[in-house]
Amino acid sequence: MTTDYPDMQAETVENFTPQKVTLTVNQKPVELEVLPWVSLLDGLRDYAGLTGTKKGCDHGQCGACTVLCDGERILSCLTLAVMNDGSEITTIEGIAQEGELHPLQKAFIEHDAFQCGYCTPGQICSAIGMLNEGKAKSREEVKELMSGNLCRCGANTNIIDAIMEVKNQLAHE
Ligand code: FES
Ligand code: FES
Questions:
Q1: 156, 111 in Cβ contact below 8 A?
Q2: Boundaries of every domain in the chain
Q3: Is the pLDDT of residue 123 over 80?
C-alpha cells in the first residue's frame, strides 16, 4: 500500500524523539522511553513487559485494556503513555497481594466467570474501579456500569454474579 505523502510522513516521524515517562506500576517505579503517540496500553505491554492487560479493539470499545490509574478505571488504549507521567497504575499483575488473590479474582473462579479469559483482566480491573466508585446500588446498575467490558465468550451472567458476590461482601463489612 502506498501513502499519498511518504516523504512528509518519514520527515514527521524523524522529528520526534522518545520521551521519558515515569510511572508507578503495581507499586514499583517504571521508566519508559516512548514516542509521543504510544498508548499507555502499548507502553505497559510492549515497553514494560506487562502483558496481562489485553488489547482487544484498540479503539475504546471493548474494555479489555482497562487498568486503574490513580485508583480510577481507565481504558489504556485511549490514553497516551506520555499523558500519564507521574501516575500510579495498577494492572491485573498487581491485583493479588502477597500471593493472596483479590476477592474478585476468587469470585471469578468460584462463579466460572471466564472461558477464554481474554476479557478477564479488564473485567476485574473495571469491577474494582466500579466498586470504588460506589454508584451501583443494584444488579441492574452493576450490569449497566460494567457494560463497557465485553465478553465474547458470553460469560456475562457469571461475571455479574461474581461481582455481585463481592459487592454484597463489601456491604456487610
Ligand atoms: S482495547 Fe481498549 S477498549 Fe478495546
Ligand atoms: S472469557 Fe472469553 S472474552 Fe470473556
A1: no
A2: 17-94, 103-171
A3: yes
- Architecture of the CATH domain 17-94: Roll (3.10)
Whole-prediction pTM: 0.92
d(CA 151, CA 120): 8
Q: Which ligand is closest in space to the CA of residue 113? A: 2
> What H or E segment, with its residue span, contains residue 120?
helix 120-133
Helix 120-133 to helix 156-171 angle (10° resolution) is 30
Instruction: Establish whether residue 152 lines the binding site of ligand 2, counting it when its CB lies within 6 angstroms of any ligand atom.
Output: yes
Rounded mean pLDDT of the chain? 94
- How high is the pLDDT of residue 10? 59
Q: Which atom of ligand 1 is nearest to the CA of 61?
A: 3
Residue 15 backbone phi and psi in degrees, to 5: -75, -10
Per-residue pLDDT at 43 exceeds 50: yes
Tell me the three cell numbers of residue 165.
Answer: 458476590
Instruction: Judge contact between 94 and 68, C-beta under 8 A.
Output: no
Q: Is the CB of 60 under 6 A from ligand 1?
A: yes
Instruction: Tell me if 153 CB under 6 Å of ligand 2.
Output: yes
CATH code of the region 103-171: 1.10.150.120
